[in-house]
């Protein structure tokens, strides 16, 4: 019950912000929420399961493009388009995962990076289906039972997707599957000795997190009502990786903190120092990696630890005063 209450409070707070923000702030807020959703699923794949894959943004794009194509070109109703898009993401994730997860480390990274690059090539050469380099535009979210979800109410939909993604990954992390993922990450040989099917665990983790990225992509498709190859470029691939690493890999809170800081930093610095914000951005990431290898969440852990130590010492002092 406590967990449900926390989700309800989080939903009310995050949704309520949408009704007090201006149009520009609303756009930034929506995209921040979607980046956090992406970072949470990638954090599970990279930080908890230990798979250094670079195809997450590609599945984000597959979800976005697929739902638009199903609605605008195949004239599918929105519920069927959503189901078909999830099916496409699951099928493609399995097709990539089954051979790719045989690889490890550098080779897995190369294989998934090649898939991400192939996806961009398909978008650019897709003609009228993908809109080529210009992408797909001039569409809108269809009405649901005669009701069109726009404005702040669409932000509520994004909040729901974010919290659903968080809840799903939270339960997975605390299940036998989450323990299996951590065992595979830390020591595959020991995991095998404990009875863990390493390859199946990797395939499932890759497929689930890629499908969640596709769901986030579906929602993104109707934020600006436009999708194009530039949105899902390699720059976004490495930006997502940096968000998780800087925040603290393996920790959902770290993914949230890292995404919030790295997404908002260029927006806040650009008006102040112009194009030099890229230099500050890069320097900040280097300093965090060198001096805070556990990520920004490590600073929070240190502060909490010191506070608990201080409370413990204070309690010991008070106990000595009470003793005769």
UniProtKB/TrEMBL annotation:
- Keyword presence, Hydrolase: no
* One Pfam family it belongs to: BPD_transp_2
Q: What is this protein called?
A: Branched-chain amino acid ABC transporter permease
Tell me which domain of life the UniProt entry assigns to the organism this sequence originates from. Answer: Bacteria
* Keywords on record: Cell membrane, Membrane, Transmembrane, Transmembrane helix
GO molecular function terms noted in the UniProt entry: branched-chain amino acid transmembrane transporter activity
Q: Which InterPro entries match?
A: ABC_transp_permease (IPR001851), LivM-like (IPR043428)
Q: How does it sit in the membrane?
A: Multi-pass membrane protein
In terms of PANTHER family, this protein maps to: HIGH-AFFINITY BRANCHED-CHAIN AMINO ACID TRANSPORT PROTEIN BRAE, HIGH-AFFINITY BRANCHED-CHAIN AMINO ACID TRANSPORT SYSTEM PERMEASE
């Amino acid at each position: 019950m406590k967990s449900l209450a926390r989700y309800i409070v989080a939903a009310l707070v995050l949704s309520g912000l949408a009704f007090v923000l201006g149009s520009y702030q609303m756009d930034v807020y929506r995209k921040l929420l979607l980046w956090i959703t992406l970072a949470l699923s990638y954090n599970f794949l990279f930080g908890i399961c230990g798979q250094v894959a670079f195809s997450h943004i590609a599945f984000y794009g597959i979800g976005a493009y697929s739902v638009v194509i199903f609605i605008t070109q195949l004239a599918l109703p929105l519920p069927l388009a959503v189901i078909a898009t999830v099916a496409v993401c699951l099928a493609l994730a399995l097709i990539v995962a089954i051979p790719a997860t045989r690889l490890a480390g550098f080779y897995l990274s190369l294989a998934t990076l090649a898939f991400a690059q192939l996806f961009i090539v398909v978008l650019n050469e897709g003609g009228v289906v993908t809109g080529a380099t210009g992408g797909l535009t001039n569409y809108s979210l269809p009405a649901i039972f005669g009701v069109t979800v726009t404005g702040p109410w669409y932000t509520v939909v994004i909040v729901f997707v974010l919290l659903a993604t968080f809840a799903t990954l939270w339960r997975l992390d605390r299940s036998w599957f989450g323990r299996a993922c951590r065992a595979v990450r830390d020591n595959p040989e020991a995991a095998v000795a404990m009875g863990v099917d390493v390859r199946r665990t990797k395939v499932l983790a890759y497929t689930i997190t890629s499908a969640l990225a596709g769901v986030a992509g579906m929602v993104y498709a109707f934020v600006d009502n436009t999708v194009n190859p530039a949105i899902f470029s390699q720059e976004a691939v490495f930006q997502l990786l940096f968000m998780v690493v800087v925040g603290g890999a393996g920790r959902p809170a770290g993914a949230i903190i890292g995404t919030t800081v790295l997404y908002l930093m260029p927006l806040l610095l650009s008006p102040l120092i112009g194009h030099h914000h890229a230099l500050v951005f890069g320097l900040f990431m280097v300093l965090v990696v060198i001096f805070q290898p556990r990520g920004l969440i490590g600073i929070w852990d240190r502060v909490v630890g010191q506070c608990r130590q201080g409370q413990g010492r204070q309690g010991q002092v008070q106990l000595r005063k009470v003793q005769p």
